Amino acid sequence: MSVLHNWDQWKSFLGDRLNQAQGQGMDKQVINDLAYQVGDYLAKQVDPKNEQERVLSDLWSVASPEEQQAIASTMVKLVQNNGSR
To answer: Which branch of life, at top level (predicted)?
Structure first.
């Protein structure tokens, strides 16, 4: 099963990637920019696999670019302490 099918697994996966990026010294703005790019890719290319992803996809589709940046930044905050470390 893909990590996209389970919201908690998805958050843990993102948390792990975030911890790796921070551990390699990646700056907060770069991380937020990457989160925006991932969010944009997912919204355009991947069908949501659960209710939470559907809500994010719907919000993303009506948001301005600035609001999309805020969504991406908020997702970074959400998963910040969610990895398996």
So the answer is: Bacteria
Distance CA 9, CA 80 (A): 14
Number of folded domains that form the chain = 1
Q: What is the pTM of this model?
A: 0.81
List of residues 6+ apart from 68 with CB closer than 8 A: 36, 39, 40, 60
**pLDDT, tens digit, 9 for 90 and up, residues 14-35:** 888 888 988 999 999 999 999 8
Burial status of residue 8 (CB atoms within 10 A of its CB: 0-12, 13-18, 19 or more): exposed
Q: Could you tell me the residue range of the domain that residue 70 belongs to?
A: 28-85
